[in-house]
Amino acid sequence: MLDPSWAPEHYGASRPSVTVSIAFGDHALDVETEDRAVASFWMPVGGLRMTPVRIGQRNGFHGLQFRINPLAARRVLGVPAAALAGAVTDLNDLVMVQHEQLAELDWPQRFAILEDSLIRTAAGDHADVDTDPELVQAWSLIMTSHGRVRIATCADQVGWSRRRLSGRFKSEFGISPKDLARLARLRRCQSLAAQGLPLAEAAVRCGFADQPHMTRDWSALNGETPASWLRNQNRRAHQMS
């Protein structure tokens, strides 16, 4: 477990994306792994997951973070999103980029090296291996509906049985269509709450039974309550202003 003498700055929330972080400075990121151990990463890649990951950042985070659409994981990272699901992987294991090289460069050079490395990976041997169009359609239906589409309806629209869709979906992305619907619904709820919509109204608009239902799902996926999340969002916005 993480050293209780210092608190993590945040939890890595469950998101419908693959998250890449690159830390610079004196300390790597301490990440609580799936077996509750702690590992240090300079360039952690977090796959799709249905539980938040605890991240320790001594002296604050200095670095960059970007997210990759799981539909593009095969091309950009060379593996399907399912290969990364529920785990934390080092970017260097997926893309030919060295942290030591990036650490010595200025920001424009870092971005250029990263872009070149990702483009070279996308042009590699797996470049002609695309995600099945039915899975692309199913993913898009769930995301554009903000998780409100019924999975049976989604299966009908792509021309598969619900069982086949669920099996193929999890083999490609590492989570089920129902899991993605939960993530999409929560992301929509967070967006509405960040815009100032009362939490009770956001919960109803996003399809939750009531605000307590939304709070339970939010806390389970984010590692913090809606009220805590909103306070932290406001604090970060103030720091950046």
Description:
By secondary structure, the protein is α+β, with helices and mostly antiparallel strands. It has 2 domains: 10-122, no CATH class; 133-240, Arc Repressor Mutant, subunit A. It is built from 10 helices and 8 strands. A hairpin with a 5-residue loop joins strand 3 (29-32) and strand 4 (38-41). The protein starts with 9 loop residues before the first strand and ends with a helix. The model is unreliable at 1-8 (pLDDT under 50).
Briefly characterize the structure.
This protein has helices at about 75, 100-105, 105-120, 135-145, 150-160, 160-175, 175-195, 200-205, 210-220, 225-240, and strands spanning about 10, 20-25, 30, 40, 45, 55, 65-70, 90.
Share of helical residues: 40-55%
Order of helices and strands: EEEEEEEHEHHHHHHHHH
Structural class: alpha+beta
Widest beta sheet: strand line-up? 1-6-3-4
Mean model confidence by pLDDT:
88
Give the overall shape, derived from the CA principal axes.
globular
Q: Terminal Cα separation, in Å?
A: 34 Å
Quaternary status: single chain
